[in-house]
Amino acid sequence: MNEIEELSGLSFRISIIGFGAVGQGLAKVLLSKRETLQRMGIDIRVVAIADSVSLLKGSEGIDLEKALQAKEVSGRVGEEIDTGDGAREVLESVEHDLMVEATPTDIRSGEPALTHILRALASGKHVVTSNKGPFIHNHATLIETARKNDLMLRYEATVGGAMPIINLIQENLAGNTIERIEGVLNGTCNYILTRMADERLDYQHALLEAQELGIAEADPSYDVMGIDSASKLVILANTAYENDATFDDVKITGITEITPEALELAEKNGYTIRLIGEATRDRLVVAPKLVSKRHPLAIRGTLNIATIHTDLSKTITVSGAGAGSIETASAILSDIIHIYKRHEIKKGGGD
Amino acid sequence: MDIELKDTPGQLLLALQPISEMGGNIQSVVHCHDKRTPRGTVPIHVVFEVAKEGLMEIIRRIKANGVIVARVDERRLHEQTFVMLIGHIVHTDISETIDAVDSTGHSEIVDLTLSMPDVKRVSSAFMVIAADSEDSLALALNVLRATAEDKGLLVIEPIKDDAIWM
Question: Do domains B2-71 and B79-165 have the same CATH topology?
Fold first, then answer.
């Protein structure tokens, strides 16, 4: 009997904290993959969903279709809560195995996700998150708390959406020494630079276009000033080097000063300009860099890409959709399945 | 450096030993066995790196070993990189920016392309910097970065080891 068959019939209870684009994306993915998961013998039940104002519980498993509908119609997923702290109530009153933390990122404080994750770990829940905030200032604390409690904390979705890189570094490249990581970590900036170079648009025009297409936020500073890229770089660096670097350790230059003339001049010389995040053990830099047009990092549009330079595997490059609710949910689902398998193996005492 | 050796054993050593004695770094030796000069000697092409002061002594020692030195090609600035600047490059005195790099004595800006859209808008420059060693190149870049920062210019550098994709 293989490992998957052995696991059949067991139910894994998860809570979803934060029901915005990512949380809803996960609900949609769980619905669309229901049969696939059943065939794999994996029974994932969502037993609680909390958004910023309301809470929905269901120990037998929430009807995700209804939950998505309710959210769309009323903007709330369940019953309004007085405390405003649905996560706490879920942890205190709903028995479950794993918390998905998908609240909006606050890069300054990491809250409320940081508190959610630490509380979940303290009360015996595994955690999967897409939230960068908690990792930017408290990476070591989080990892140590999970380890101390003998629980798993996975965060593939924090960097590069669907692009598998965290688990690539931690698992597939285990044993390698990572010498350098460099990559295009923000799809919005890459879209703007691609359009500027292709059409000779100036920065403001390309930004407006990106905003119209929903690629850039109304306040684009988080992306174009390099803050988002720097946050992801910190997470990659801490994962690769087991450091406790923070956002303040990154030297950041954004793309706002790039001109179409500069891109044209670079092109004439066989180069283009990309916003590159580069991490070595002791240096973190986000800055526009010249990239040969034939280099993989000269990727186009909203895609993300990262190249990992290692001693044994040499150079490994991954790319993929850097954002999008379904793409991000895919990374979360993969983390949940990973934990599920480990969890059930442990519970069954098997090997 | 092109040298000529008699076709007898041990000759190559006589030619190369002075280079390493003087702390030179031999990068390539092409031994043209099948060719002969009119003098019946074998032509050899040697490429090496050495501090400027050591070159004359190497030539003297090679000659003293009885080896013919036919030609010496000196390439002083063999390390190169390129950067772009964006900003008011001309108005912040471009010649002073260039001088800052050249004044390090071991590096020069050897090529410069400018794009100047109009007076109100910022210019861009693509410049190639050559230096006599990696260290000199790193120093030149530091000088350029500092000068650019003083003048409020954005420096865009290439990613590392881009060359492997060229």
Answer: yes
Minimal CA separation from A184 to chain B, in Å: 12
CB proximity A277 to B under 8 Å: no
Q: Are B86 and B124 in contact (CB under 8 A)?
A: yes
Contact A297 B159 (CB under 8 A): yes
B79-165 has CATH 3.30.70.260 classification? yes
Q: What DSSP string runs through A149-161?
A: TT--EE-GGGSST
Low-confidence ranges of chain A (pLDDT < 50): 1-9, 350-351
Tell me the fold of A170-322: Dihydrodipicolinate Reductase; domain 2 (3.30.360)
CATH for A3-161+326-348, options being 3.90.660.10, 3.10.20.810, 3.60.15.10, 3.40.50.720: 3.40.50.720
Distances from the Cα of A210 to the Cαs of A11, A194, A214, A256, A321, in angstroms?
A: 43, 11, 6, 14, 16
pLDDT at residue B132 above 50? yes
Q: Measured between CB atoms, which of B125, B158, B165 is closest to A290?
A: B158
A268 has catalytic annotation: no
Q: For the CA atoms of A187, A192, A194, A197, what is the dihedral angle to 10 degrees?
A: -160
| A77-133 confidence digits (pLDDT tens) | 999 887 778 899 999 999 999 999 999 989 889 999 999 999 999 999 999 999 999
Q: Report the C-alpha gap between A98 and A126 in whole angstroms.
A: 4
Residue with tokens 């990189």: B81
Nearest CA in chain A to B112: A265
Euclidean distance between CA atoms A23 and A94, whole angstroms: 18
Give A174-194 pLDDT, tens digit per residue.
Answer: 999 999 999 999 999 999 999
Domain residue limits, chain B: 2-71, 79-165
Phi-psi region of A324 (alpha: psi -120 to 50; beta: other; left: phi over 0): left
CATH architecture of B2-71: 2-Layer Sandwich (3.30)
